[in-house]
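Agenda item 2: uridine-diphosphate-N-acetylglucosamine complex prediction
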Amino acid sequence: MKAVVLAAGKGKRMKSSLEKVFHKVLGFAMVERIFKSLRDAEVDEVIGVFSPRGKELVSSLRYKPDIVVVQDTPLGTGDALKRAYDYLDSVVIVLPGDMPLITADEIRRVLEKGKNYDAMVVAMELDEPGYYGRIVLDDKGNLKSIVEYTDATDEEKKIKLVNTGVYVFKGESLKKYLDKLTPANAQGEYYLTDVFPMMIADGYSVGVFITDDAKQYIGVNNRYMLSVAEDIARKRYLKKLMMDGVTIRMPETVYIEETVVIDNDVEILPYTVLKGNTVIKTGSIIGPSTYIEDSTIEENCHIQYSHLTEAYVGPDSVVGPFGRLRPGAHLERKVKIGNFVEVKKSTLGEGTKASHLSYIGDATVGKNVNIGAGTITCNYDGFSKNPTFIEDDVFIGSDSILVAPVRIGKGAYTAAGSVITKDIPPGALGIGRSRQVNKEGWVSKYVARKKQEGGMHGGSSK
Ligand code: UD1
Ligand code: CA
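Presented output:
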């Protein structure tokens, strides 16, 4: 059995420079979701019909078709299927590329029903049939034709049985009818749906399969329907995660892309967004209000009110509230990143802590280092990024400025408020600030002078 996915349409109603079927639903392009379901349904060969521009984007998909054919101009669904003519030599399921929610189980069910006919259309009953094509039946309840909304009479528009856009054909029976289509309709397109009345007239066996799960067949033509489809996909994935042992508090506020992998006994707290190639290991608590993209979080971490991209967080680590891990942040075991601490392209060794208000960039930090509040690695001199090395057991005093390139030797200290411009040898104290001077009795002299001038304490202020 083969499948043809029609994905070459312009998607005008999306009002987008990106081809419609490449718009994402929960982390996967719409068309990619169909390829995944077809693969899971074990269809033998999958053919994708793309526009020339779409063809170039196929390589960016995680799930790809076996064969790509091109439709240069979007002349309609009938013309699109004709581009796959050479492959129509078995039972073929045809699906639109803008139907992101169909599952492998449903595809199997449809193929099972469809293989008994020369042509079968999958239909659904909708209370609000919208702009879908209408399924017109004769007095005996047999299929007569499929009428597009734009071509339908007022009477036909009232029909609630509509075309999902999924069909099963015996390829050999279908072939000659694709050549007989004409664009004599409101949209001037070659409608695939017009093969049905022709095949009926010639006595082929034609069927209608009415699905009981219309949700799976939502067609996305605009951004509103994209959000409707994504909401269904989101709830479906959150439910799967919960069934697999992930606790999700207030799931209506949580957005997790289907690309994200989460172990059991992870707890996701409200207002959390997890995206891309993110992995969360068991025992970790994520959120509330946390954004994580393309990152790995090892076991038993706690990350709250924080923003992470392309970061690695070792086991038993704590980030936040209000931590920011930028690309290349690599925390080993039991690291603590506290409030208003930013880490970029830096490794922090086991047991190291940066608890408050710091910037650590292009740094290699050893084990059990204490980074005091307000520490800044000055990694940028206006021309290039320079590295900072902080060896094991170092104590960086509060408000230290580490002017890179610089190395702080094992076990060394920096005095609070220092500007460190030279390497500090192991075990030494680096002080880089002017000495404090106390002027005895200075205040009373100052106050006396101000009073004489009438400028202080009850002077001329209104
Ligand atoms: C189509 C059906 C309609 C059905 C609806 C279900 C036709 C004529 N109409 O309408 O009966 O109710 O789907 O969602 O088939 N495409 C191409 N090349 C083209 C035109 C379209 O590859 O020249 C692809 C599109 O990328 C899309 C799919 O075919 O993935 C369907 O096209 P679309 O324009 O969305 O059709 P609808 O108006 O939704
Ligand atoms: Ca559509």
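Discussion summary: The two ends are 90 Å apart (CA to CA).
Owner for follow-up: CH.
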